[in-house]
């Protein structure tokens, strides 16, 4: 038995989500604030015995997209698969499937409903069948609902997915059309039935290891210390004679400590001081008494862990003397041991929930820990924002949480992919590339030059970093774009992915007859042919998928960078790397030639001479705010980043004006310092952007501002 999916409706950051899980280890990844903690809490409300069954909800537990929460329901549902034939598991099985006589005994469901009580639901139903119903009248009714008019109900065997909007409208209520179901017609196969005498949390084992932000405090506390949980009840396993012997020794120790002369002197001193202060009549009697617990159960609870780092095996100290990573590892180990003890009670299913285990644990331990979590007959669900953990996760067992306006949304990156496609993805996604799963937008490039120079262009020209705006730039190397880009799709990850590639058009004129090509022309013709084929393949691949778009440089990246009016940057590299003036002058003349067959050949020669990667590093050092970004790269960036806020656009504009006030193009008479001062005086964001676009109408940031706002 395992959890095959979890649905959450209207709970905290979740308006309506459905997560699919597999047997074994599952990963939930997402940026900070995406809702990982809320998701775990929702799941624990259904399966964790350590949480009270009398769950309480408050107004702020409703998702904010609802606006007015009154009348709405919070619904949390789990669907179990592969139910065992035992009685407890079968008590939640037997869904109606298709024909009413057909029963699926391998699938079961369990749900929590936080809903208006029956009188309030009846009030909504009766108003919905009234001939005089109106939005205003409904609003007046809903205003009377308080949180005290709600109830928490647990039910099993329900057969409706309430994360589906149409199902929610039909069985909870359509607030726009003012249609509400009759509470007398509550269908057991829809909402489920109360499981009398059966509580799912009591029948399954659930061990939860929370995010390790203050593990030392937990290891010191009485309530949350997993060591104490492991020790509780162990006194029953100790032979009675051994138990009596230990308790007698502790009692003797207490008497010996209390009877020490040094202790008696302190006791007498306190007594005399009090008597001198308040007199004999009011002075209390004082005695210092050792009270080490003699009961064996309390003695066990007083035990403490002594630990040592691996490089100091002979030294053992307190838990807080360890590094935070060491303390976190011990905490997780104790929780896993606690789980093993609980699992021994023969529950019908076993679950381990681990929240963000990566805190203060270095890369190798993160990966090793994750890979060793898989356990027979156990389902593990782990949340993380670690690229190292996500890099060893099976993509078919990953759910991605992403923040949207007032809600979290869920993506399943493998949904609808074939097994070979999933295998290729998993082989490709290492710790560097998995950051595309966390990004708000993605740029895919095919070479080292793009990977090195594009981030520097964005930073120096636009004044922001790709990380700052949530864009991941991924160098696919020899991997085809399609193998990676296919995860951006309506059915999978709903984020924009821009593919940046080259057409590899020939920089020299080619003969009409290929047979007349010399060796260089033949290479150019073959590259150009491959570029056109790549364009056709990508055109077909991107068709009908609004999340992916390809952007093409006409030649190669180095040539297109040069032709974007960036000969100055390349000449600076030549000045730095060449020592002879004649060589510098020759290269400069070639680079500044207007004929691409001349300038293109020269920059490609330089790239080959220094190595494309090293040459790109040298170019990146010369990039400034005066450098031009090739047009196809700017378009790709805008496509991948429609989420750019107006605040970020204002920051870009401010950066450009400040940079130009320090250094501008030769012959530019604009007083940028005055513009910068005027811009800073504008408090309204829209007015500031309008001002910039009017005063800097041909600037790249103006182009970005207009296109981003147009796509909003």
Describe the overall structure:
- This protein has 712 residues and is of the alpha/beta class.
- Residues 96-102 have low confidence and may be disordered.
- Among the domains are: 54-198, no CATH class; 225-303, no CATH class.
- It has a six-stranded mixed β-sheet with strand order 9-10-11-3-12-13, with helices on both faces.
- It has 29 helices and 17 strands.
- Helix 17 packs parallel to helix 24 (612-622).
- Helix 19 (519-542) links the parallel strand 16 (496-502) and strand 17 (548-553).
Summarize the topology.
Elements: E1 2-11, E2 14-20, E3 25-30, H1 36-47, E4 74-81, H2 87-90, E5 95-96, E6 103-104, E7 108-116, H3 118-128, H4 135-143, E8 150-156, H5 165-171, H6 188-191, H7 200-203, E9 204-209, H8 215-220, H9 226-231, H10 240-258, H11 261-278, H12 296-301, H13 324-343, E10 349-355, H14 363-371, E11 379-384, H15 387-391, E12 398-404, E13 407-411, H16 419-428, E14 441-445, H17 448-462, E15 471-475, H18 481-485, E16 496-502, H19 519-542, E17 548-553, H20 557-563, H21 567-577, H22 581-591, H23 596-610, H24 612-622, H25 631-640, H26 646-662, H27 672-680, H28 685-695, H29 700-711
Parallel strand pairs: 3-11, 3-12, 9-10, 10-11, 14-15, 14-16, 16-17
Antiparallel strand pairs: 1-2, 1-4, 4-7, 5-6, 7-8, 12-13
Helix pairs in contact: 17-24, 20-23, 21-22, 22-23, 23-24, 26-27, 26-28, 26-29
**Structural class, please?**
alpha/beta
Helix content: 40-55%
Strand content of the residues, in percent? Answer: 5-15%
- List the uncertain runs: 96-102
Helices, by number, come to 29
Distance between the termini: 45 Å
| Spatial strand arrangement across the major sheet | 9-10-11-3-12-13
């Amino acid at each position: 038995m395992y959890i095959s999916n979890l649905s959450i409706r209207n709970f905290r950051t979740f308006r309506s989500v459905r997560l699919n899980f597999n047997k074994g280890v599952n990963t939930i990844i997402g940026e900070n604030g995406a809702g990982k903690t809320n998701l775990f809490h929702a799941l624990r409300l259904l399966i964790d015995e350590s949480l009270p069954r009398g769950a309480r909800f408050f107004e702020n537990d409703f998702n904010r997209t609802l606006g007015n929460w009154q009348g709405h329901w919070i619904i949390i549902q789990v669907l179990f698969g592969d139910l065992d034939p035992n009685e407890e598991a079968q008590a939640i099985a037997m869904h109606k499937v298709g024909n009413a006589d057909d029963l699926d005994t391998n699938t079961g469901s369990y749900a929590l409903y936080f809903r208006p009580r029956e009188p309030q639901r009846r009030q909504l139903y009766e108003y919905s069948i009234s001939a005089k119903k109106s939005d205003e009248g409904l609003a007046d009714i809903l205003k009377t609902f308080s949180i005290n008019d709600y109830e928490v109900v647990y039910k099993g065997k329900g057969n409706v997915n309430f994360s589906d909007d149409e199902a929610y409208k039909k069985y909870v209520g359509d607030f726009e059309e003012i249609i509400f179901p009759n509470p007398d017609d509550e269908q057991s196969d829809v909402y489920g039935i109360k499981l009398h005498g059966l509580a799912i949390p009591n029948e399954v084992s659930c061990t939860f290891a929370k995010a390790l932000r203050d593990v030392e405090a937990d290891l010191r506390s009485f309530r949350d210390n997993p060591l104490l949980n492991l020790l509780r009840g162990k006194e029953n396993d100790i032979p009675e004679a051994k138990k009596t012997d230990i308790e007698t020794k502790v009692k003797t120790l207490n008497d010996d400590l209390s009877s020490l002369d040094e202790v008696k002197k302190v006791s007498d001193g306190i007594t005399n001081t009090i008597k001198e202060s308040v007199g004999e009549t009011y002075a209390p009697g004082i005695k210092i008494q050792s009270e080490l617990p003699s009961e064996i159960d309390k003695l066990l609870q007083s035990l403490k862990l002594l630990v040592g780092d691996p490089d100091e095996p002979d030294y053992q100290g307190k838990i807080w003397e360890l590094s935070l990573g060491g303390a976190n590892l011990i905490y997780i180990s104790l929780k896993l041991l606690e789980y093993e003890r609980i699992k021994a009670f023969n529950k019908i299913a076993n679950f381990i929930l681990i929240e963000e285990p990566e805190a203060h644990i270095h890369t190798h331990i993160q990966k090793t820990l994750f890979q060793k979590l898989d356990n027979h007959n156990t389902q593990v669900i782990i949340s993380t924002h670690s690229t190292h953990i996500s890099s060893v996760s099976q993509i078919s067992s990953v759910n991605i949480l992403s923040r949207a306006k007032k809600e979290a949304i869920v993506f399943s990156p493998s949904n609808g992919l074939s097994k070979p496609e999933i295998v290729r993805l998993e082989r490709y996604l290492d710790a560097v590339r998995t950051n595309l799963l966390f990004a708000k937008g993605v740029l895919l490039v095919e070479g080292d030059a793009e990977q090195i120079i594009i981030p520097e262009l964005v930073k120096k020209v636009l004044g922001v970093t790709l990380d700052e705006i949530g864009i991941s730039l991924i160098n696919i190397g020899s991997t085809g774009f399609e193998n990676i880009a296919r995860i951006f799709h309506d059915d999978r990850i709903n984020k924009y992915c821009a593919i940046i590639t080259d057409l590899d058009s020939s920089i020299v004129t080619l003969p009409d007859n290929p047979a007349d090509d010399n060796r260089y022309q033949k290479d150019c013709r073959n590259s150009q042919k491959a570029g056109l084929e790549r364009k056709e393949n990508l055109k077909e691949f991107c068709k009908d998928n609004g999340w992916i778009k390809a952007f093409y440089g006409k030649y190669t990246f180095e040539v297109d960078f040069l032709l974007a009016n960036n000969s100055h940057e390349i000449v600076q590299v030549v000045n730095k790397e060449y020592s002879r003036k004649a060589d510098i002058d020759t290269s400069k003349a070639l680079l500044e030639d207007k004929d691409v067959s001349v300038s293109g050949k020269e920059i490609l020669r330089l790239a080959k001479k220094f190595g494309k990667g090293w040459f790109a590093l040298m170019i990146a050092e010369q990039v400034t705010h005066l450098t031009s970004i090739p047009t196809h790269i700017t378009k790709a960036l805008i496509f991948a980043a429609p989420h750019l806020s107006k605040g970020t656009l204002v920051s870009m504009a401010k950066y450009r004006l400040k940079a130009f006030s320090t250094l501008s193009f030769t012959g530019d008479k604009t007083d940028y310092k005055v513009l910068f001062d005027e811009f800073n005086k504008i408090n309204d964001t829209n007015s500031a952007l309008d001002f910039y676009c009017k005063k800097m109408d041909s600037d790249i940031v103006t182009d970005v501002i207009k296109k981003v706002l147009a796509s909003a």
